[in-house]
Structure formats: C-alpha cells, structure tokens
Design goal:
With 124 residues, this protein is an all-alpha fold. The protein has 6 helices and no strands.
C-alpha cells in the first residue's frame, strides 16, 4: 500500500535540497550517492515521494551532515520560515562539520558561544 506524502515529507525534502546545495552537488551526484536516479532525488526534494531511513542515513553520512539536521521540524502551527537557519548559517555549520578533527570543531563551537555571551553581556 502506497502512503500519501505529508507536510513532513515536503519539509524533509527541503532540508535534503539545502544540504545538497551546501555541498555543491547536483541532483545527479546526490542520486549516485543515494543509489537512485536524479529524478528520484528531485521527487524527494519536492516532497512528492517518501524517502527511506536507509537512504536518508546514506545521504546524511555522504554529505557529512548530522541526521538530526533533516528532522528539525517547525513548531506546531508555525508558518514562518525564520524558524529555519539561513543559508549562511547552514553553510557555516556545514563547514564546521567538515573540519577534519572533531576537537577543532568543538573549539570553534566554544569560541562562537563565548563571542555570543560577550555580545549579550555588552548589550544587556
């Protein structure tokens, strides 16, 4: 039995597209990674087809994006896109996740947190 796609499928597809673009991949390249055609990727990105957990896991690993990135849902009733990180924020996050050493990524995260704290203190 084929299940109808949902709003979640559309949002998941939107996240897959963002991750793909952050990595500078075409739909064809992502399809090769996921083991499907570029047409299937296009349908996934539009939310027209559901995506399996196995395929999403493969995409997540190949794009070096945490699986949680794809499941960051909007709060119920929120129709405002400002809930989602901007393209620049996502690009920065992708760069941090792409660092070759997890210790460096943690240090960058601590640095950003310290800057934010200093900024909030200064402007309080």
């Amino acid at each position: 039995m084929t299940r109808k796609t949902t709003e979640f499928d559309r949002l998941l597809g939107h996240r897959i597209r963002k991750a793909r673009l952050l990595r500078g991949l075409t739909q064809e390249e992502l399809g090769r990674i996921a083991g499907v055609s570029s047409q299937q990727i296009q349908k996934n990105e539009r939310g027209e087809n559901r995506i399996s957990a196995e395929r999403l896991n493969r995409i997540s690993k190949q794009l070096n994006m945490p699986a949680g990135f794809f499941f960051d849902e909007r709060p119920e009733g929120d129709k405002d896109d400002t809930f989602y990180p901007s393209g620049k924020t996502l690009q920065l996050a992708a760069e941090i996740y792409g660092l070759p050493d997890a210790r460096i990524a943690k240090s960058v995260g601590r640095l950003v947190a310290a800057i934010n704290t200093a900024w909030e203190t200064k402007n309080a």
